[in-house]
Amino acid sequence: MPIATVNPATEETLKTFDPLDAEQLEHRLAAADAAFRQYRDTSYDHRTDRLRAAAGLLDQERDEVAHTMTLEMGKPLRAAQAEVAKCVKCLRWYAEHGPDLLADEFPAADDVTDSGAVRARVRYLPLGPVLAVMPWNFPLWQVIRFAAPALLAGNVGLLKHASNVPQTALYVEDLFRRADFADGCFQTLLIGSGSVENVLRDPRVRAATLTGSEPAGRAVASVAGDTIKKTVLELGGSDPYLVLPSADLERAARVAVTARVQNNGQSCIAAKRFLVHTDVYEEFAERFVRGMRELTVGDPMDADTDVGPLVSEGGRQDLADLVEDARTRGASVLCGGGRPANRPTGWFYEPTVLTDLTPEMRIHQEEAFGPVASLYRVADLTEALRLANDTPFGLSSNVWTQDEEEQERCAHELEAGAVYFNGMTASHPGLPFGGVKRSGYGRELAGHGPREFCNVKTLWYGAED
């Protein structure tokens, strides 16, 4: 895959980039290693000052950065602007809260005296250069949510971004440079996916994080396992959205539309499977389908656009294949189901709702990465939970109920990294983020993010006499 900016709304190649050659790549790996040897000894005050500086620069440049993201991957411009604002918030959050998250911990003396210690402490120390393999769908947020906690902890970053968002990738490197992080603290590697293994096997690279597809996650985890290196993986999701009788149906249906089509439907944490109690199914379905039909599909630079194009022709075809498989096996298409007639150019797909779904349909198990919703009628909460967990994924989930017993049961039984009650899943710097099952392992954000790439070092002190 060439390293290039291709506008998915027009299919026009705007800019291409040459990948790093072997000598250039070696120079960057050496620079990361040298930078870490100095940066790991800097104070938290130094690091948080740099994070604040990066936040200030990004805030000033939000319109320019948002425009670049929309050109490269097609999200509506206002969504890109919101993504930039979220990244500013994340940088500032870690600048404010970070030192407390990584402060030394002191076990109570009474708890460790039988070890022979008179005192003990736990210290969090950085591992070294971390390779980040990042996707195109949130080209700035995915990077910042790794970079802010990693840099706070004293690690340095090597970014292998998706090949279709090279301008955003280079911007992030430049952002941290202009925020006065030392040379080599954060670098973008313009390399193809075939070069990732050699970078990860390099002994100077101490760990890796990947957000992306299952095959990419398996490949990185395999190499990391072979070389005994820590990894964090955030992979696919097929998040359930449960609607039970006590739900506020007007709000649940309105939020459901946003939850399904956010980022043009190309989000791991987008709600994809809507499991609705039979007592409220008809009313919810009517509201939900109407909301999906009313969305405006069009130029992502237009302020009136709700849904822009998918990122590539291949992505659109994969989505169309899932819909066609379901249709031929008996699914009903309540709205959408194809390419918009008024968009002959660009990789657009209509907001779509499918129902009458059965387990043999591919979409019952596979992730639909685009604005296609699967709508199920369920008899009760037990059936809803069974269907919700009948997936290889376990990233997040959404539950709409005012019943506290139902909430507690969902909190306990849903197989997911998060449950959002009466609201839509959204990552936040103060909350841990990650999944279970084939959605990956490890956690980003909150206090867990910086600690994932730390040496949790035990310090034991015996009597001096």
TrEMBL record:
The record's PROSITE patterns line, in alphabetical order, gives: ALDEHYDE_DEHYDR_CYS
InterPro entries the UniProt entry points to: Ald_DH/histidinol_DH (IPR016161), Ald_DH_C (IPR016163), Ald_DH_CS_CYS (IPR016160), Ald_DH_N (IPR016162), Aldehyde_DH_dom (IPR015590), ALDH_GabD1-like (IPR044148), GABD/Sad-like (IPR047110)
Q: Which Pfam families match?
A: Aldedh
Asked if the record carries the keyword NADP, the reply is: yes
Gene Ontology molecular functions: aldehyde dehydrogenase [NAD(P)+] activity; succinate-semialdehyde dehydrogenase (NAD+) activity
Recorded superkingdom? Bacteria
Q: Which SUPFAM superfamilies match?
A: ALDH-like
Domain (Aldehyde dehydrogenase): give its ranges.
3-458
Query: In the UniProt record, does the keyword Ligase occur?
Result: no
Name the keywords, alphabetized.
Answer: NADP, Oxidoreductase
Q: Which family does it belong to?
A: Belongs to the aldehyde dehydrogenase family.
What NCBIfam families has UniProt attached to this entry? PRK09406.1 (NF006915)
Entry protein name: Succinate-semialdehyde dehydrogenase
